[in-house]
């Protein structure tokens, strides 16, 4: 007898079983600590392979991971395309394959787009909790796409801001964002207007040139830098990169994939996992940048969470 056919868990079902990204927080904190503990942490995760699709401005990322603590073995396949102006397809699309670690059988094929949106925002929320200044009042989001929504949701769920500001390259999209989310959001006409005086800043754009200048940033602010995941792409300028304390999800990934890190020559202070383990301090009183590239182990945690909830309900 062969093994049972894999379950197919589409975007709606993922959403149903993972209604709030904050449900992932305890498992993600543990996984980030395990990732930064080397072999003792039980996470096996090579640097992802990113394949360019010449002539189409696209990339295919292959992201395998095993987490012993989560009993999860996955690979995520994610595509991201720079310019899809005349296409209804989203810029990022992903699928997660979940295997049984005991025998390698494929247990489920899950939509990976909702997982990517939620686990990325949840990791930024972990960084924000550790690194934002005391009494943070103003949240600023640069970008108005999928990640802008997931970051808004978790950051406003976990923290109380007096003001939320958004800027996007096309103002129309920022206005749509402001009218779709549940709380008040101020639409700004320039990135500078949105950033000046902000305590927590999130960059979630497809920019390849800096959109955030260190000259605008309030000393002591915390920045979650989510975009610019190619070695020649930037979201943050050199002034910011060189005058901040730089935290990353993975040092290896940051030094291979992040244009903001590689091209600025900025020194990495710590991995987020090291802060979670207590081997490096958080420094919330300093200007801090969390450079996120996205780890497959985060997808493993999220896929396992969804699969377990789905199995319990089916
Ligand atoms: N660190 C991580 O784990 C992850 C990072 N990402 C990255 O986060 C960023 C946002 O992703 P999504 O929200 O899914 O994308 P999206 O396509 O839904 O939104 C992108 C936003 O950037 C804006 N934009 C596009 N080109 C721009 C430019 N040249 N300058 C300024 N703004 C520009 C668009 O108007 C849009 O509002 C991307 O760079 C993506 O690769 C995405 C998933 C995971
Ligand atoms: O971790 C991910 O998933 C991604 N990271 C960078 C850009 C594409 C998706």
TrEMBL record:
It comes from the Eukaryota. Transmembrane segments: none annotated. Coiled coil: none annotated. It catalyses: (3R)-1,4-thiomorpholine-3-carboxylate + NAD(+) = 3,4-dehydrothiomorpholine-3-carboxylate + NADH + 2 H(+); (R)-lanthionine ketimine + NADPH + 2 H(+) = (3R,5R)-1,4-thiomorpholine-3,5-dicarboxylate + NADP(+); (S)-cystathionine ketimine + NADPH + 2 H(+) = (3R,5S)-2,3,5,6,7-pentahydro-1,4-thiazepine-3,5-dicarboxylate + NADP(+); L-pipecolate + NADP(+) = Delta(1)-piperideine-2-carboxylate + NADPH + H(+). One of its GO terms (molecular function) is pyrroline-2-carboxylate reductase activity. SUPFAM superfamilies: NAD(P)-binding Rossmann-fold domains (SSF51735). Its EC number is 1.5.1.1, 1.5.1.25. Keywords: Cytoplasm, NAD, NADP, Oxidoreductase. It is an enzyme of class 1 (oxidoreductase). Gene3D superfamilies: NAD(P)-binding Rossmann-like Domain, ornithine cyclodeaminase, domain 1. GO terms for cellular component: cytoplasm. It is found in: Cytoplasm. GO terms for biological process: thyroid hormone metabolic process. Homodimer. Binds the thyroid hormone triiodothyronine (T3); T3 binding inhibits enzymatic activity. Belongs to the ornithine cyclodeaminase/mu-crystallin family. PANTHER family: KETIMINE REDUCTASE MU-CRYSTALLIN. This is Ketimine reductase mu-crystallin. It comes from Pipra filicauda (Wire-tailed manakin). The gene is CRYM.
